[in-house]
Amino acid sequence: MNLHPFLREDLADLTPYHVAQPPHRVKADANESPFDLPPEIRQELIEAIAQLNFNRYPDPSSDLLRTKLCEQLGVDKTEVVVGNGSDELIGNFMLAFRRPEACVSFPTPTFSMFAILAQVAQLKAVGLPLDDRFDLDREAWKTHLDSHEINLVFLSYPNNPTGTNFSAEVIREILSRSDTLVLLDEAYYEFSGQSLMEEREQYPNLVITRTFSKAYGLAGLRVGYVVAHPAVIDELNKVRLPYNLNRFSQLAATLLLKRPDRLAQHLQLIRSERERVFNAMVPIDGIHPFPTDANFILFRTDSPAPEVFQRLLDHGVLVRNLDRPGPLQNCLRITIGTPEDNNLFLDGLRG
Question: What is the pTM (predicted TM-score) of this model?
Answer without folding.
Answer: 0.95
